[in-house]
Design a protein that fits this description.
Helices cover 59% and strands 0% of the residues. It has 5 helices and no strands. Among the domains are: 48 residues; 46 residues. With 139 residues, it is mainly alpha-helical. Helix 1 crosses helix 3.
Length: 139
């Protein structure tokens, strides 16, 4: 937002001059502003004292700070809501690995062993024969 050339006190002083009887066109020419700007000032500060204008500015600043804090808190809450979904799924997979074999059993959808299956659940155990395959052929 563009900063005004005039302080709130100066704007209220201009409005007081106009209320005292000065012509708006002369007042605007003297201060170097357009009539539209003058009437915008009048809409914002009309009927205010300097102390009220300062209070209005302080309230506006405080409101902006509170809005910023609220936005940060909302982002934090959204991030925390997202976190348990990711960790909860990973935790369930790690903790409940053997308790439930899932929808497709111990094997995945491609018929391959699931990546979460334990080595002792291997469907084709190899006999510990010391590398001799002749025992397998005899059987």
């Amino acid at each position: 937002m563009k900063k005004s050339r005039f302080s709130d006190e100066q704007i209220i002083a201009m409005l007081r001059e106009q209320e005292a009887g000065a012509k708006t066109t002369d007042l605007c020419r003297r201060h170097g502003i357009s009539e539209a700007t003058f009437y915008n000032y009048k809409a914002k500060f009309g009927g205010m004292d300097v102390s009220e204008a300062k209070r209005l500015k302080a309230l506006g600043d405080e409101n902006a700070k509170l809005k910023k804090l609220l936005a940060e808190q909302m982002l934090d809450v959204a991030a925390l809501r997202e976190l348990p979904g990711k960790n909860g799924r990973a935790c369930r997979q790690a903790c409940c690995r053997g308790a439930s074999e899932g929808r497709h059993g111990r094997f995945g959808t491609a018929g391959l062993p699931s990546r979460f299956s334990r080595p002792d659940d291997d469907p084709l155990p190899i006999a510990a024969t010391g590398g001799d395959r002749s025992a397998e052929k005899a059987a």
